Amino acid sequence: MTNSQTGERGIRETSRRRRQVLLDATIRIMARQGLAAVTHRAVAAEAGLPPSSTSYFFESIDELMAEAVGEAMNREVARLSDLEKAVSQSGSSGGALIEQFIEFLRSDQDLHTIAQFEVYLYASRKPELRERVIEIIDATRQVARQALNASGVRDPLAANSMLALIDGFSLHRIANPTTDDMASLLLGLRALLIGLTSLEVVGETTLSDHRFTK
Asked: PANTHER family per the record (predicted)?
């Protein structure tokens, strides 16, 4: 490799790192202040780069936000994939898997959780990103389904109920960050698991009732 080629490779690597730093900075701003706070100047300042950096790498602020949202989605899918592997290989009971799920949520940073919901809202107005959001939700649902199946719960809507409880808790934690009552979430999930298991035992199919699934 010639000196010229080595130099070009170094420039490309530097550009890649700076571009990634800008995306990381954008995700942090989205989480802390919301999408409205994402500006060229704010992102460059957060990244510790010159103000012109964002316009050099991205044609518009919309392009920057879209790529940052995509980056956040990729990270979430990767995290959920790791959790799914851990759940599928553990061989634990449903209750133990729920506690494992709780630990996963506990280790999650608040900024990451806020960014996730910011991404959901942003993607709701961007049809081209909705498929990625659905991918994240499906990945989360698959983990929940595995935990429920380990306890004998087969109702196809049961995982949705579990996710609704978890997302509701997460939103409350964002609204009131001074409290982090994971014990209440664990109680709710255990109660849900007991109720769903009981329905399976008696053969009740209320959750899949056609009156609510049309």
From this structure: HTH-TYPE TRANSCRIPTIONAL REGULATOR RUTR (PTHR30055), TRANSCRIPTIONAL REGULATORY PROTEIN (PROBABLY DEOR-FAMILY)-RELATED (PTHR30055:SF231)
Q: Does domain 1-58 have CATH number 1.10.10?
A: yes
Q: What is the pLDDT of residues 80-138, one digit of tens each?
A: 777 777 766 666 666 676 777 677 666 655 666 777 787 788 778 878 778 777 887 88
Residue-wise pLDDT for 169-189, tens only, equals 888 877 776 666 778 888 888
Examine domains 1-58 and 66-204 and report if their fold is the same. no
